[in-house]
Amino acid sequence: MERKLGCQPFGATADQRIETLKLLKEAGFTNYFFGINNFRKQDAEKIMAAGEKLGLELEEIHAPFKDINRIWYDDEHGEEPFRMMMDSLEFCAEHKVPVMVIHESAGRVAPNMSNAALRRFRTLFETANEKGVKIAVENVRRTNYIARIFHENRDIPVYYCWDSGHELCYTPGVNHVALFPEKLICTHIHDNMGIYMNDDHILPFDGNTDWKKKAECIKASGYKGSLTLEINRDAPQYTDMTDEQYVRLAYERLYRFAEMCE
């Protein structure tokens, strides 16, 4: 199969994630991503160095999203999450990470849209384009926020990250891939039971996602990029497995979905 298959390494520490990277390589994965929410710069660099040594491609970094709703505030409180994104962008540019994934809001209720936030996002996108980093906005709960951001920045490159689990348990019935097919550049693939606010991050085919329908959406979009898992090693149904068994099963499940997308 020509399509690249990736996975987010699991573990609470940098060293644990490095051990997972070794298992991912052995199982057949070709690329990975990780979030920098809980990692210091030197920890992130340590993970990246290990991935490079193993021959794994770092596809993206997920920017922190702590207090992301404040970015919509039209006051000084909106500057902190904006600065957090800009700092993450600087890290990506410095280390030649091609894509940075961001959230645009969080929680059941998001603040009202504001011109202040739209200006901040615009600055982020313009700076990213100058530095050679692609920003991908991930679907969470507010499809209208993503649509507004894309519309306001339709004259410059801005991209989309499809999260299958978010789509099922936060916005059932919304086909984001069909809404933004030309913007899709990366994926976060996982399953859940479709219960609102319960994003289990379990392996594909262990939840209630209609994977046949999702594969049809991918095929219709023309997306030929990588398919990448964002999964929860600590989910109860996998506790009796060794890490090696879990990673091998994860690869088998993603490969199965990838074949459906061809």
Describe the fold and architecture.
This protein has helices at 14-27, 41-54, 79-94, 115-131, 143-152, 164-170, 176-179, 211-221, 243-260; strands at 5-7, 31-35, 57-62, 99-102, 134-138, 159-163, 184-188, 227-229. With 262 residues, it is α/β, with parallel strands linked by helices. The strands form two sheets. Strands 2-3-4-5-6-7 form a six-stranded parallel sheet. The chain starts with a strand and ends with a helix. The protein is globular. The mean pLDDT is 96. It is built from nine helices and eight strands.
For the structure shown, list the relevant keywords.
single chain; alpha/beta; 262 residues; 6-stranded parallel sheet; 9 helices; two-stranded parallel ribbon
How would the blueprint of this fold be written?
Layout: E1 5-7, H1 14-27, E2 31-35, H2 41-54, E3 57-62, H3 79-94, E4 99-102, H4 115-131, E5 134-138, H5 143-152, E6 159-163, H6 164-170, H7 176-179, E7 184-188, H8 211-221, E8 227-229, H9 243-260
Parallel strand pairs: 1-8, 2-3, 3-4, 4-5, 5-6, 6-7
Helix pairs in contact: 1-2, 1-9, 3-4
User: What is the number of E strands?
Assistant: 8
Helix/sheet category: alpha/beta
Strand content: 5-15%
- How would you characterize the largest beta sheet? 6 strands, parallel
The order of strands across the largest sheet is 2-3-4-5-6-7
- Outline type: globular
Q: pLDDT average, as an integer?
A: 96
Q: What percentage of residues falls in helices of 4 or more residues?
A: 40-55%
Order of helices and strands: EHEHEHEHEHEHHEHEH
Which stretches of 5+ consecutive residues score pLDDT under 50? none
Task: Give the number of helices.
Answer: 9
Report the radius of gyration as a whole number of Å.
Answer: 18 Å
Report, as a whole number of angstroms, the end-to-end distance.
Answer: 9 Å
